[in-house]
Design goal:
Length: 525
């Protein structure tokens, strides 16, 4: 552990850089609470999406890195802001008209449109927990409704009443003049309608721990700030939660970054120490727009897992967290193949390189062996030309290429074969566009067919690749990539494809010969 810890203390991998910042908080003395608290916040206004998972995955990576460089115990708390009022009806849920009747009520007081849980908030919390459990995250779940109603936040709420003016000074400085006139950091829950009210307060009695306001019907109401009768506006709530729980680390999207001084300031006003924080760039959908829970654009949690294993998503999350990334279906094959490339590289690396390898952070140092002897992209092409409808249809080709492989010995490959067939039929097949070869391309393809007919080199992928290269070179393709683009567009109906020698080895020499002949006859167009 000592040598590993030394390497970790010098690693430039971003989880270790963040972990060292957290450790610095306790260079003089360990935390009074006995552990370091990592937190992620979740706004359950819509169904969980991959961005939500990203926060937990990345925070877990930092937590694991911290546990290498420190012996201080850690906890991860996933906190759901499920007491927020429902301000708009999500577009991707059933029974939307029913939900409209419950606007502005806390999400845990809104009926579940799916009819499975006590409330919409409970439903969305369950969806989040189900997904986190699927990935095996170690976490504790917390509900804002529970914390407010059970009294867990009473102490910090009473302190907020005592220091109301200091909190308001921070908040008012960040608001436009017209908003300043009606703003309060406390949001009462109407005892008559159950709605979260955005109303000005007529009085804050710090000694009694109460607030007064005018309800929707015009009556003045006085309620305690404790026991779930009020909640804090979201920005004060952020800082108050940090203070109440003594949070040491929380990350959030770049869209929150301008609020960091507000969150920190309120945490300090309430007697807390602001945590370390990390901002990440946002995920974008196919059109380059921010992924939104309520819109349901971009990839959903279940959609990714329909076409690829969980580890590929974790790999995608590791990469460049401070760079905006598109999250659409076309990123999946690349993520799968790069993940397995990193698995294969891991065993050849020294300790420092292993700590910089994404798979160390995905698996917490317990890195498995890749048994993926055929790339996912190659499986997609194989599904394309073979017309396979299930993974069994691909295994005949796989076994000829890799005789020792089997579903039992290569479970990751077996699973990927099923994913590849599914992905091909859903996304590749509908977009394929075959074309006829040009005269130059036709001559080269006829030459390639002639060489394949007399090929004696077996299924040696590298030898086949060299032969394909030679055909392109001898027929004057410059740059040579134009030759491979022609192969992909004419034979596979795509602008990109696999190493063609490897494809021939997998699909078969005679089968590839027949495929080219069909293309030359115009039967693929």
């Amino acid at each position: 552990m000592t040598s590993l810890r030394d390497a970790a203390m010098n690693s430039k991998a971003w989880p270790f850089e963040e972990a060292r910042r957290v450790l610095k908080r306790y260079e003089k003395a360990p935390p009074n609470k006995g552990f370091v608290l990592f937190e992620t916040g979740y706004g359950p206004s819509g169904l969980p999406h991959i961005g939500t998972f990203g926060e937990v995955a990345r925070t877990t990576m930092i937590r694991r890195a911290f546990e290498i460089i420190s012996d201080i115990p850690t906890r991860l708390l996933c906190f759901s802001d499920d007491m927020d009022g429902m301000r708009k009806v999500p577009e991707n849920v059933p029974n939307r008209d029913m939900l409209k009747e419950h606007m502005q009520k806390p999400l845990t007081a809104v009926p579940d449109p799916f009819g499975h849980y006590q409330s919409f908030g409970d439903h969305n919390n369950a969806m989040l927990r189900r997904f986190l459990d699927t990935f095996g995250f170690e976490y504790e779940f917390a509900s804002a409704t529970d914390y407010y109603k059970s009294g867990k936040f009473d102490e910090i709420l009473l302190r907020a009443a005592e220091r109301y003016d200091a909190i308001m000074e921070i908040m008012l400085a960040s608001l436009r003049e017209e908003r300043q006139q009606t703003y309060s950091c406390f949001l009462p829950i109407s005892p008559k309608t159950g709605k979260v009210l955005y109303v000005p307060l007529t009085n804050v009695n710090a000694k009694a721990g109460t607030i007064s306001y005018v309800d929707e019907d015009g009556d003045e109401v006085t309620v305690p700030v404790t026991g779930g009768r009020v909640k804090l506006q979201w920005k004060p709530d952020f800082g108050a939660r940090w203070a109440a729980l003594d949070v040491d680390f929380e990350m959030y999207g770049k869209d929150h970054s301008t609020n960091t001084p507000i969150y920190d300031g309120i945490c300090k006003v309430l007697g807390g120490r602001a945590p370390e924080h990390m901002t990440y760039e946002l995920f974008l959908d196919q059109s380059g727009e921010k992924i939104s829970k309520s819109k349901g654009n971009g990839l959903s949690i279940d959609e990714w897992l329909t076409y690829a294993a969980t580890e590929s998503l974790s790999y995608f999350m590791y990469l460049k967290p401070k760079t905006a990334k598109r999250m659409h279906f076309d990123v999946i094959p690349k993520a799968v193949d790069e993940y397995h490339q990193q698995l294969r590289a891991f065993t050849t690396q020294d300790a420092a390189a292993q700590l910089a390898n994404p798979v160390w952070h995905i698996h917490g140092g317990n890195v498995p062996e890749s048994r993926m002897v055929v790339p996912f992209a190659m499986l997609l092409n194989l599904a394309s030309v073979s017309g396979a409808t299930d993974r069994a249809g691909l295994w005949g080709f796989i076994n000829r290429y890799a005789p020792d492989a089997s579903p039992e010995a290569n479970p990751d490959l077996d699973q990927a074969a099923e994913f590849a067939v599914r992905y091909f039929h859903d996304f590749v097949a509908p977009t394929r566009a075959f074309r006829l070869p040009s005269d130059k391309e036709r001559a080269a393809l006829e030459d390639l067919v002639a060489r394949l007919r007399v090929w004696q080199g077996g299924l040696d992928a590298e030898a086949l690749q060299t032969m394909v290269f030679a055909v392109g070179t001898e027929h004057g393709f410059e740059p040579l990539r134009d030759w491979f683009t022609a192969l992909y567009e004419v034979l596979l109906g795509a602008s990109q494809g696999p190493r063609f020698g490897g494809f021939i080895a997998l699909y078969g020499v005679s089968e590839t010969t027949a495929l080219i002949e069909r293309a030359l006859d115009g039967r693929l167009v």
